[in-house]
Every structure is written in structure tokens, then in C-alpha cells.
Amino acid sequence: LVWLLVLSLAWLGLASGGEEEDGTVVAEEEEGNVLSDELREEDGVLVLHEHNFARALREHRLLLVEFYAPWCGHCQRLAPAFAQAATELRNESGLARLGKVDATAQVALANEFGITSYPTLKLFRDGNRTHPLAYTGRMDAEGIVRWMQRRASPSATLLQDTDTAATFVSSQDLVVIGFFKDLESEAAQAFYEVASEVVDMTFGVAKAAELFQAYGLSADTVCLFKKVRGWQEGGGAILVLPSLHQPLPQQSDEGRTDFPVDPARGLGAAELTRLLRVHSLELVMEFTNETSDQIFSAQIPHHMLLFLNKSSSVQLALRDGFRAAASAFRGEVLFVVVDVTGYGADVLPFFGLTPADAPTLCLVKMENNRKYRMDQDAFSDTAIRTFIQAVLDGKVKPRLLSAEPPEDWDTRPVKVLVGKTFEQVAFDETKNVFVKFYAPWCSHCQAMAAAWEELGERYKDHEDIVIAELDSTANELENITISGFPTLHYFPAGPGRKMVEYKNARDVETFSKFLENGGTLPEEPPAVSKAPPTPGPRTPTHPRAAPSL
After folding, report:
1. Collapsed DSSP state (helix, strand, coil) of residue 385
2. What's the burial of 163, exposed, middle or buried (CB within 10 Å: 0-12/13-18/19+)?
3. Which one, out of 399, 473, 503, 532, has a CA that is 20 to 30 A from the CA of 451?
4. Catalytic one of 45, 56, 62, 72
5. Considering the entire predicted model, what is its pTM?
6. Pairing of strands 370-374, 487-491
7. What is the distance between the alpha carbons of residues 317 and 447, in angstroms, rounded to a whole number?
8. Given this model, what pLDDT does residue 230 score?
9. Which of 442, 466, 482, 546 is catalytic?
């Protein structure tokens, strides 16, 4: 069930972010307890505040600091992983340390570093307090350790000769080597920037003429080497080592892919990162616990999924046509095989499928979670390519999920909408309809559930006002995309299919003012003060963000 929620978030394309609730600012010092510059630890993590922060920067060359709020659920979930990473890094060399700041108590530090959501992680290097680096890695122990390790040592290994290069290429399943005649050039610096950020790949760099010759290169080029795994009978994989010293085509699925540096345009870090992400993946991925992070971090706009039962030899044979269709869409469509009786079983409800529906082909547009089912019986590479191109050209309509409406859906104070009933209720020209789009597992939705029920009770006898809710994990709408939970939309009476997003306080009284004022909040008169307020620390704000797991 946990993985279903995680994967639903990924295929929904929800943005992860800081906790959205407002916290209460408390005093920086407890009464009678004056803080000193002593550095103390909790579970290997330095406990930082205004009085010891400067000392921590002086004593630790690399210091990753988490700014958190005690009430923040995301911070609470991160805490064990952050502590584990702190212990691993301290045991390795002691060069990199982790610290934490309670930003609700240490208001001066929160304001100094522009903390607006929780948790926020920033890296301080060589005691530099004015230009911390935003953390860009994964929010788990392994991701934090890798990210810090990459910054504690050179981001790319300098390869001096053919022997060290050959050893480097064969040392990992996937490595990236930048061949640059001038390691101080702008292209080389962009390469180093990518190497610092893409911590799940191993990077090398070469400038020696003999290496250019050995790898068949005459100009600056970035080469990706990978050990290719091909299909074999029974669903396993055959390991194919790359040919190390022979020049290969620029686009190859045989172990090496070259990205020549354009002399006019140079080398862009963002574009190189995208290309490496795309080409580091196998042409066809199998959805497993080990590959799920790769699949969702590739930022490929469409996913083509083949749902099959791996225990069926007939269904396994369908992978051949699936793979044959994949190369024409590389970078635009990611091809993924999902075993309906294995690791992929938990995601089937997200697609409205059961194991009995296999084999099935489904394309997902990641930007809006639209799903397109291939209905043809033929699974040939030609049929698959034709279907995908038709979807990309806008010639195929999405297949939308809809739950069945409860028998009493329209007699409750809060009407329960589903995909198939949404249009007739929300766009009823005689009603003003206020809808909550939610996910059952969302803690923010659960927190406001009582207020929404109370609102429904308050307006249940109003002929022209309807309070409703829709489970967005079980129902999809053609022209409305929900990108975070809860989302509140108001559909005013009258023609024109109008929709107003509600972005204000989530309490019954504010909801009521909004409804009574016809879908807007009345303007509050400006507060009049006889004297200017006394200056003081600003309270950090907390922008709304989609919940993450």
C-alpha cells in the first residue's frame, strides 16, 4: 500500500515541497536558559542556534544544515534518514557534518537564510555564510550521503592513460567520461557542474591525446558507457560489456553513447543532465524496486507501459515488439514493462486494471496524468508505434477513471462526486458548487475534513449552494488537472462553465464568507494604527505545497 501511494504521486506528477501549515514562532531562548556557543549533538546531528552557528561554520569545512519545524510532518519523516546519514559521514572522514536548526525558534537564522518552507536544507562550505548552496539530492540517507561525498572530493576522476581509463569504464555498470582538450574551458566547467549534481553516476575526465585517439575522438565529447542488459528466456538479463576502444555511433544501445560538444553553442549543464538521464536508462525498463527511482527521475514526458504476466511465456514474447518500437521514441517516451503478478501488482488500481487485464498497453502523459489505453489486439511494433504517434498528435482521447457513486451520494450534507457524475453537478447552471478534491491518505485533507463536513451541514438546506467532494485518486476529469491535495474549486451558477480556485484560509467561517459573497472574499478595511509598530523579526511564511511521502 505504501508503494502504491508513492508511485501514485510519481505518476500523478505531484510536486514535492515543504510543509504548508503555519507554525507558531516561539522564543529563541527558554526562560533562564541562556544558549552558549557549545556544539552539542543529537543522534550525530549538530544542534545549531544563533549562538553556535558561526563556530560550527568555522570548525566544519562542509556543513549541511536542515532548517525544520517541530510540527512539520515532512521534517519528522526525514529525521531518521538525516541522523543515519550524519553517522555515516562522520564515520567516513569527519570532513562533512550535518546540523539542524529549529527555524520556528531561531527566527533570526530563518530570516537570514530566507527559510520559507520546511524542511529546507542548505550546504555551507569553507565557513562561507553568505552564499550557501541549496540541497538538490534525494531526501533519504543514501541520497544525502552520496550528495555530500560528491562535494567532499573531486566530482570527476582525472584519467591519465588508456589503462586507467579502461579500468574506470569497467568498474561500474555506468560511467560518464568527459573528453576535453582544455580542462579549464567553459564546456569542461559545465561538465564538472553536472558531475557535482548527478550523484548517482560516476564521472571521469580526460585530456590526454592518446585517450582521444583510443576512443576514436577528434573533438571535445562526453561519452556515456554502460553495461547493457538484454532479454533472455525466463525474464532474466544478459550482461553485455561495452566495447572500450572502438569508436561507436553517436546513438547506440550497444554500450556507449557519445554527446559531441557543439563548437558554436557549447555545452549546457541542463541539457547534458537531461541527455545523461535519458540515455542512462535501458531502452526498455522493467518496473522493480531497484529501477523505480530511475524511471521517475528521468523526466521523460510520456511513459508507455506494457502490463504482462511474467509467468506466461506467450505474454513474455510480447516484449520483442515492444522493444522494437522503443528506439523511435527515445527521450520522448519511456518504455516500461510491468509484471502484474510481481512488483507491479500494487499499482494496478491506479490504472484501473486487474491482473486479468494483462496483457495491456497504456501510455501516460506525465504532465497531467492522462492515460491512453491501446485497445488493439495486435501488439506488433508497427501497431505500437502507430498508437503512440496518434496519442502524441492528439488523435486519441484519454481513458478516464471513475468510481461508482454511493447510493446516497446526493442525500449527504457533503455530496460525494465521482468522475461520471461530476459534470452534471459542478456545471449545473442553477447551483453554486464548492468542491474539495482530495486524496484519502493526505494528512492535510484529513485535517480539514471536519471543517468541510461542518460546512456541508451549514448549507445542506440552501437550494442554490452545494458542498461536495471528489476522491482524485479514484476519479479523473477531462479538463481539470489536480496537482496537489487538497484543492478547492468553486463553480458559480450561470452559463459559461466558470471555475474559481479557492486559496484562502481553510476554516468554516472563511469558507462561509467566500460563499455568501458569491465566490470571493470581501475586502477587509486596512488596519489603522496610531503609531508605527515596533520593528521585530519577521515570521517565515509557508507556501502551500503538494504533500509528499
Report:
1. helix
2. exposed
3. 473
4. 72
5. 0.64
6. unpaired
7. 49
8. 54
9. 442
> What is the rounded CA–CA span in Å between residue 113 and residue 122?
9
Beta carbons within 10 angstroms of residue 497's beta carbon: 12
Rg (CA), the chain: 27
Catalytic residue among 177, 261, 445, 455, which? 445
What separation in angstroms does the CA of 478 have from each of 3, 73, 371, 418, 516?
A: 26, 32, 11, 13, 29
Say which of 75, 85, 86, 281 is annotated catalytic. Answer: 75
Cell of 186: 567553459
What are the structural domains, with CATH classification, of the chain?
41-150 (3.40.30.10), 157-244+252-280 (3.40.30.10), 285-393 (3.40.30.10), 415-517 (3.40.30.10)
The answer to whether residue 362 is catalytic is no
What amino acid occupies position 57?
A: L
Distance CA 236, CA 527 (A): 70
- Distances 233 to 237, 284, 325 between C-alpha atoms, Å: 9, 16, 20
Angle CA 331–332–336, to nearest 5: 85
According to the model, what pLDDT value does residue 350 have? 84
Backbone angles phi, psi at 11, to 5 degrees: -75, -20
- Please report the pLDDT score of residue 227 as a whole number: 84
Collapse the DSSP code of 139 into the 3-class scheme (helix H, G, I; strand E, B; otherwise coil) and give the result. coil
Does 72 participate in catalysis according to the annotation? Answer: yes
**Residues of the chain with confidence (pLDDT) below 50:** 1-10, 12-32, 231-253, 527-549
Tell me, what's the pLDDT at 339? 96
Give the CA count within 13 Å in the CB-facing half-sphere of 285.
25
